[in-house]
UniProtKB/TrEMBL annotation:
Pfam families given in the database record: K319L-like_PKD, PhoX
Coiled-coil ranges (or none): none
Lineage, top ranks: Bacteria, Pseudomonadati, Pseudomonadota, Alphaproteobacteria, Sphingomonadales
Record's compositionally biased regions (Polar residues): 607-618, 791-806
Disordered, as annotated region: 592-622, 776-806
Protein name as it appears in the record: PhoX family phosphatase
Amino acid sequence: MKDVNEATPGYSDGDIETNPSAAITLSALVERRYSRRSTIQGGAATMALAVFGGSMLAACDDTGNDVENDQPPVVTAGSSGTASAGRLVTLNSTVTDDGGIVTSAWTQVSGPTVTLNGAGTDTATFVAPSVSANQPLVFRYTATDQSGQSSSAETTVTISPAVLSFTAVAKNKNDLVTVPTGYAVGVLTRLGDPIAADVAAYKNDGTDTNFANRIGDHGDALRYYGLNSAGTRDDASNTRGLLVQNHENLNVQYLHANGPTNLPAGPRPEAEAIKEIEAHGVSAVEIQQTGAGWTPIQNGALNRRITPNTPVAFNGPVRGSALLQTAFSADGTAGRGTINNCANGVTPWATNLTCEENWAFYFRRPAAADNARRTAKEVTALTRYGVTSANGNYAWASVTPADGASTIFRRWDAQATGSSATADFRNEPNQFGWVVEIDPYNRTSVPRKRTALGRMNHEGAWPGNFVAGTRPAWYMGDDAQNEYLYKFVSATAWVAADANATDRLAIGDKYLDTGTLYVARFDADGTGDWLPLVFGQGPLTPSNATYPFADQADVLTHARLAADALGATPMDRPEWTAVNPANGEMYLTLTNNSSRSVDRVDPANPRSYQDPPSTARGNRNGHILRLREDGDTTEATGFRWDIYVFAAGSDLDPANINISGLTADNDHSSPDGLWFSRPTNVAGQVSPLLWVQTDDGAFTDQTNNQMLAALPGTVGDGAARSVTSTGADGTTRTVTTYVGAAPGARLKRFLTGPLECEITGVDTTPDGRNLFVGVQHPGENGTPAAPTSKWPDSQTNSSAPATTRPRSGVVVIVRADGGVVGL
């Protein structure tokens, strides 16, 4: 028997290394590897990963190289970290390998699924998802070398709920659109930009014509409609789309070389009036993202202007009514155009709702002369809607057309001068004040006025959240002092497949032509009721002493009178509505009310006060009210309400004026535009981002108009509170209202606009990374010889000539890091 110390292989209980080959041992391999390379970092990296990678370690590769010379790659996945919802997160990895890496990739291991951009590279990015509480996301980085050996490492990113991560923009009086640090702003479209191939560039000296093929003035509410590479509907497109925008009114002084001729009474020159008429309405222009940013496409196939002269059709219960009969439409089914388009609405079937606001003032109807030609009922209606101007805003009715026959000017004379309604335009005012549905993807389609939604100073028609099997609703403000909030509920329950129909206006017929119009009553206990405007119910009958209603067409055409009769709550100028896509709560801007006296305050409109230096009293700064439908359904006839925020200067009385505790970072006045981010991206999910825009005169001694970003809570998150108003004579009145939780840092000023502008109109691309914002009437108080703003030229050229005329326009705002705007 041989000695155990001989070289001959043998066995011993103390032996650990039983493999007699010359290959390196496992323990030595680990020791050597860690002595020559860095330790694997992140996640669940272990010695097994360091040695074995993604497969069992082999002694030699297929070329015969031993393991020492051909080790699996060494990878790291960076350190674990944190990010808040909406932030752009970058995953960094490193890899070391002597034999060359063939493939490498990031994959998600756990947590809410995100889209990894650059997943097949060493560096990947993703947008942090929306979460309600801290949520870990685990990612694995794997690299494979030429020998087929792979190694992996993991890292964890903990996502926290959304916050407003930007630093608030300071109040200022700059002639610029100012955005937070880390954001960039570019001008996208402007008044007068050509949207047809053969239209000349805009000279901006008052000599330009053909506004039927140019972007109009006073851009207001806007909406982005996605397009694919073929130029057809694509709701997910973030790089190409149609920008559809309202054009509410005019900076008429800048449209003409030396300002308008013969205002206010006329006679007006035909050419000037045509230009002014065509500069109203709606524009649709294709826009595209390029390497240099966003740009409009002048000859876009879907580019379109809808002006006050564009043919339209009437749909719904008022179609064919004698109330719509004119010399143009003897049967009361057709009309021309849309005017004073302010806020908007949308539908799931991708049509645009444009809303006619202050239309009454365009008509000439000297009441003293015309009232004698009218019935008492007609006088009541015309007076209630304010059709009482001696000349009309721009005296278009004073034009004598060159052809002697055109009625495009005579239609603006609403006097009863003929033998019947079909011999003149006494009923032309009844053809305005409606919600108008437009198919942006079909430029030859005829817009339809949806009369079931009622006639008023429509300030938008925003839909509630759509639920299959439930009748959908649209919420509408009537923008005038002491007017009402309305809701239209369709008679047809929602069918989700209708969202993808190609005959979009036919789907509008299905949901928007039959239903019930309601008006809101806000009760003192924090609840409220929707009161139906239905002919034959309650006071809406022919026996009504104030206004005898003839039929449902009469009720809808004179919705204000019907709401009066039902006892609706007069509000502080109901403007835009917006609906929280996460919970269905409806928000309403009440922009201000100079006639809200101490004796007329109520729980939903609880303030009347003086805001120095003005000596006027009333609710000068406005507030934002919100409501939650009973049962969280659009079909509800009751709701709960509170006041999300009271607008005010931060230096005003915290007990009765600055009730929401606003600071220099978020104080504001006259909230107007209102919009929740799209639910297609993080900003519109879980705790959606709310954008608030202002149209103010009470706060412009401190700052230009602005846009704020908010992460609001929910109805009932605050408490009841007593508010005392004081009159000029010292009389007081105290009411109890319901105030939401103080917004604090969850409300911040995101943007300020140029001089004398209004900020109005907001939307994003579906991914939330491109924010479109409207800038209306900069320099509105100037003259052609002395403009008071040079925007948008001032945005990029601080040396623009002093006589540069300002123009309304749209800007696009992006984060420098490519993340979701606002978060």
